[in-house]
Design brief:
The complex is a heterodimer of chains A (294) and B (782). With 294 residues, chain A is α/β, with parallel strands linked by helices. Chain A has helices at residues 40-47, 65-68, 70-73, 91-102, 106-119, 135-147, 165-178, 191-195, 215-221, 233-242, 277-285, and strands spanning 3-12, 15-25, 28-33, 55-60, 63-64, 76-79, 153-157, 183-188, 200-205, 208-213, 226-231, 244-250, 255-260, 269-270. In chain A, a hairpin with a 2-residue loop joins β4 and β5 (63-64). The chains are: A alpha/beta (294), B mainly alpha (782). The interface between A and B is large, with 43 and 35 residues.
Chain lengths: 294, 782
């Protein structure tokens, strides 16, 4: 199974949302990482044919998705960023409704819905109105609907927004479990969500693909560029103007600051352990507005 | 502050202004449809003439003399009608030999020179209607003293009957009280004043509903804080409980005063204006209330002006008491939905109880102790009735005032109590739990993958379609006149002829006509019989002529019902009987219902953010569109059935369904219809055309709303473009679009020329195009 984006471009009047985006994906979990407005949602919308593309192609197993039409749509499960739902529907009714729109036969829908509600832990509240659900519960319903019909491509646009840490971990684990024989596109700007589960990470900035690599490879790439040092409050402000600043925390010896830079400032010690995707994010994607970074 | 805040809400302000305007326009239109302006003017001119001839307090003999004069005038006017019919028949070339004797005798008797002295039929009708109005009033005034004396005499007689004379019993006390009350008005000097203005003002029920609607909206505005999630903050603040409740009660009271004066005051002014009574205003206001025929039984010795103020006071009390009561009830609910539902349920129950519980029913307590009769309130003044309060008779008027004051204070106490005791966070989610239980109970029903049912559920429940349909059904039930048909003497005779000779024209029919004509020649027929015979004769002649020229055999059909409901000819009877008003109101309301129902169908997904998700699914485009379009069609069918099945049933109840299999051209008015149907076929065809026009409006709404992301904007735009033109036409502002919309839906007058059937190709093709455009917008728009 292959999903290929070729020179995909989307312009909104003068703004370029996606610029000659080219990448080829096979089975696995792909974390799409980028700041707000980087083009993640546009990419999702182009894939679901909710936005008209300016140019370029998307191929699924060698065939353009616009010619495949509903055959392609049958292969996808989409979890949008917005929690738009019908408040008067119960979770159960909502999932049956979606099953209908997906064209899943009633018998199959019954089995799948029951299993999915168990999976996302909502069986006990299946008959409650969605209007009375918390944000986390709604996210789980949205995930369940995306999984209905066992789609081979799972498009998840910021699936963990608004969730508490426990729910975040739970949803992350579901996705990890379900990813076998699927292409999972997981768009987020919360780095920790994809760190442990992504096969590969796509770093997007201003509509362009910056990097496509495994989390480990990305971490290795910035090895030696992450440093920590003791600073005063006045120095923090000065350093902030010049470098990508990570966490600042109060230690026993004073104020400790973590930053990412090609050349670490004087007094800063390179970190060898505990480098994570957050540092990668900082290195590649932060400060783009200031024109520095990579 | 609460008053200012609530009335500052754009929604409330808009609804308030719109309802004042609608109330005024509807009132004016109703008066126009019920009484022509010429009739009003003629009535007034004649009344002023009589006033100048009378002393301030006319003796009943003088009034009786006027009554005799008017009756004599009416005889002449009836003669004019006959002569007019005769002249018309003569012009048509009808053989009138049989009627000549009566005609000549009639002319000699009344001394009318025809046609020079013969007024046109319209002015005769106007004069007759004005005379009737005045005659009725003069008869009442001349008989007033006698009728009061009769009541006193009856009281005296009854008090001597053993059955009622038991000391200390309610019946005895009631008789004595009645005598005492009527004694107070026995010496009232009733005056001859214009009475149409106040009568019309009293009869106007819509104003009650409009004022109540604004008041309930105001109460709903108090819940804005709950909708916006500010309840916690307000409830936690120092003046957020007791003082807030008191401020709101104050706001409701002030609003009740304002609404009463604005709504009822404007209707009263319009009424005086329509009936041209401003010149006589001081006379009217200072006249004893009993001068108005409606108040013959009212024992309050007050003037008409004092009555107007009393009625205002009653309306203020009713609005304030029920406003605060609804505020108390709605405050019990945390969610606005629950509060509105509770208020709606109470209102619905009250309305249905008021409308449908028979007076004799053992449940009639719900009918009488009810919001709606209290809101209307007229009977407390026009009907003399004493309530039994521990065997003491208490005037129902006093009872109503006292009851309302008690209700107001109890409601105030309840509202304050609920405002203080109801907490924003509570474990008891009554409605949420109730709905969850229902969802669980009907889980099997919800386990449907059929998208049509889900779309229907969404539209009716989430889109508030059920409420629209409920309100529409109530309006449709209220719309038809419940009165039985009243035939004139002439019409009653004609009706007998039609019924006796129903079916094909036979030798027997001709023999009957011949025999009747002979009777006419011998002067054995009355004027009404003569007129009826002339018309029936002309009708039979028309049927036989048609058979000769077209070769199609027609039948004798009783045409009264078909003409009243479906005649393709515009006629004055439609205007006078108010049928035109009801037909147009039904058409306008049907369009409104379809537009409002369908306008939420497509933007719903866009507003809720579901559109991209659904479009990403295999059946989320064409198939989902089909389901939605089918829901729109079902909406049209429901509206169509509600609107027109009731009309059809009303027609059958009033007129029956004579000769459904006969050719439709058997009815003279329908001779030009473009296709030769049977009557049943023709009616079915008309009703299907009406359905087509409703589908056309649904299609237009679908197209318009497909351009909007937000439900409210979509609804507003649809209403502006599709509903405003027919509404303007309805209120008398001519415009092409509005006229077409209403007349297409009436599916009547378009056939008057016999060539207009092609006009229906426009809604047909426009519907197809509209559905196609919205399909493209739904499936292809990105």
């Amino acid at each position: 199974m292959e999903l290929k984006f070729e020179n995909l471009t989307k312009n909104y009047k003068t703004k370029i949302a996606l610029n000659h985006f080219t990448v080829s994906l096979t089975e696995g979990i792909y974390g799409i990482l980028g700041p707000n407005g980087a083009g993640k949602s546009t990419l999702m919308n182009l894939l679901t044919d909710n936005v008209k593309r300016t140019s370029g192609n998307i191929y699924f197993n060698g065939k353009e998705i616009l010619t495949l039409k509903e055959k392609f749509r049958r292969e996808i499960g989409y979890m949008p960023q917005q929690q738009g739902m019908y408040d008067e529907f119960s979770a159960n009714r909502f999932l049956y409704y979606i099953a209908g729109v997906k064209g899943i036969p009633k018998k199959q829908a019954k089995q799948e819905i029951s299993a999915l509600l168990d999976l996302v832990g909502l069986s006990s509240v299946a008959h409650r109105r969605l209007g009375s659900f918390s944000g986390g519960m709604k996210q789980r319903v949205l995930l369940a609907q995306a999984l209905l019909g066992n789609p081979s491509i799972l498009i998840l646009d910021e699936p963990t927004t608004g969730l508490d840490p426990e729910e975040r971990i739970r949803i992350r684990n579901y996705i990890s479990e379900l990813s076998t024989n699927k292409i999972v596109l997981f768009a987020t700007h919360v780095v920790s969500d994809i760190e442990s589960i992504a096969t590969e990470v796509l770093l997007i900035r201003q509509g362009e693909l910056l990097k496509k690599a495994s989390p480990l490879a990305l971490i290795e790439e910035i090895s030696g560029k992450v440093g920590e040092g003791l600073v005063t409050r006045e120095e923090v402000a000065a350093l902030q103007k010049k470098y990508q600043i990570g966490n600042v925390y109060q230690g026993r010896q004073g104020l400790k600051l973590r930053l990412v830079a090609d050349e670490l400032p004087e007094g800063f010690v390179p970190v060898t352990d505990h480098i994570d995707l957050e540092d990668v994010y900082l290195y590649y994607l932060e400060g783009q507005g200031r024109g520095d970074g990579i | 502050m609460e008053f200012k805040k609530s009335f500052g809400s754009p929604l409330l302000l808009t609804v308030f202004c719109a309802l004042i305007l609608i109330n005024g326009i509807l009132f004016w239109q109703t008066q126009r449809s019920e009484k022509q302006e010429e009739v009003v003017q003629t009535y007034l001119d004649r009344l002023i003439q009589y006033q100048s001839e009378l002393k301030d307090n006319p003796a009943s003999e003088e009034l009786k003399a006027f009554a005799l004069q008017l009756t004599a005038e009416n005889d002449i006017l009836d003669a004019y009608s006959f002569l007019h019919n005769y002249e018309e028949a003569k012009k048509r070339g009808q053989n009138l030999e049989a009627y000549d004797l009566m005609y000549n005798e009639f002319i000699t008797k009344k001394g009318i020179i025809v046609p020079e002295q013969l007024p046109d039929s319209r002015s005769t009708q106007i004069q007759r209607s004005a005379n009737n109005l005045l005659l009725e009033q003069i008869n009442y005034l001349s008989g007033y003293t006698n009728s009061v004396a009769q009541v006193l005499k009856n009281a005296e007689r009854m008090s001597k009957i053993k059955q009622f004379a038991k000391e200390g019993s309610f019946s005895k006390k009631n008789i004595l009280r009645t005598a005492k009350d009527f004694q107070k008005i026995a010496d009232v000097d009733v005056a001859l004043i214009p009475v149409l203005g106040i009568s019309a003002w009293l009869k106007e029920e819509r104003t009650d509903y409009f004022a109540l609607a604004v008041l309930l909206l105001l109460v709903a505005e108090f819940f804005r804080e709950r909708r916006k999630g500010l309840w916690h903050i307000i409830h936690a603040s120092a003046s957020g409980r007791l003082f807030l409740a008191l401020r709101r009660i104050g706001a409701l009271t002030v609003s009740s005063i304002l609404l009463t004066f604005v709504f009822y005051g404007s209707t009263l002014l319009l009424s005086f204006c329509f009936y041209r009574e401003f010149a006589q205003l001081s006379k009217i206001l200072s006249a004893p209330l009993q001068s108005l025929p409606e108040f013959g039984q009212c024992t309050l010795a007050i003037t008409a002006g004092e009555f107007i103020l009393t009625r205002f006071l009653l309306k203020i009390l009713v609005l304030a008491a029920f406003g605060v009561l609804f505020y108390a009830v709605m405050s019990c609910f945390a969610s606005t939905g629950g509060a509105v539902l509770a208020a709606g349920t109470i209102l619905g129950f009250e309305f249905l109880a008021y409308q449908f519980i028979p007076v004799q029913s053992f449940t009639n307590v719900f009918k009488f102790i009810n919001l709606f009769p209290l809101l209307a309130g007229n009977k407390f003044f026009t009907v003399y009735q004493n309530l039994n309060l521990f065997t003491n008779p208490v005037s129902s008027t006093l009872g109503a005032f006292a009851g309302l004051i008690v209700l107001f204070f109890i409601s105030c106490f309840a509202a304050v109590f609920v405002q203080i005791k109801k907490y924003p966070v509570s474990g008891a989610k009554l409605f949420a739990n109730f709905f969850d239980k229902i969802q669980k109970k009907f889980a099997a029903v919800s386990m449907q993958t059929n998208t049509f049912f889900s779309e229907l559920f969404k539209q009716l429940i989430s889109g508030r379609g059920l409420i629209i349909l409920f309100l529409f059904a109530i309006m449709m039930i209220r719309l038809p006149s419940a009165k039985t048909v009243l035939y004139t003497f002439e019409e009653a005779i004609l009706l007998d002829y039609y019924q006796d000779f129903e079916g094909e024209v036979t030798e027997e029919t001709f023999a009957f006509l011949e025999a009747q004509k002979q009777k006419a020649e011998q002067g054995k027929l009355t004027y009404e019989q003569l007129s009826a015979l002339m018309e029936f004769d002309a009708y039979i002649e028309g049927l036989t002529d048609y058979e000769i020229t077209h070769g199609t055999k027609l039948s004798v059909v009783n045409p009264f019902g078909y003409k009243a409901y479906f005649s393709p000819r515009k006629n004055e009877v439609d205007e006078w009987s108010g049928r035109s008003f009801r037909d147009q109101a039904r058409a306008l309301l049907s369009i409104a219902a379809v537009v409002l129902l369908v306008s939420v169908l497509f933007p719903c997904e866009k507003q809720k953010g579901m559109y991209p998700l659904l479009r990403s699914m295999s059946r989320g485009r064409l198939e989902l569109f089909r389901a939605k379009a089918f829901v729109a069609l079902i909406n049209c069918i429901i509206v169509w059935l509600l609107a027109y099945s009731l009309e059809f049933m009303e027609m059958i109840r009033q007129y029956g369904l004579p000769c459904p299999g006969a050719p439709v051209r058997s009815i003279a008015d329908f001779r030009d219809v473009p296709v030769s149907f049977s009557i049943a076929g023709y009616l079915l065809f008309l009703y299907l055309l009406r359905l087509l026009v409703l589908i056309f409006f649904a299609a237009c709404t679908m197209v318009l709303t497909s351009f909007f992301q937000e439900q409210r904007t979509a609804v507003l735009c649809s209403v502006l473009l599709l509903l405003v033109p027919p509404a303007l036409f309805f209120i008398g502002i001519p415009n092409f679009l509005g006229e077409k919309a209403i007349y297409w839906l009436l599916a009547r007058y378009e056939f008057s020329s016999g060539k207009q059937l092609a006009a229906y190709l426009i809604p047909l093709f426009a519907s197809i195009a509209g559905i196609w455009i919205s399909l493209v917008r739904w499936c292809r728009a990105k």
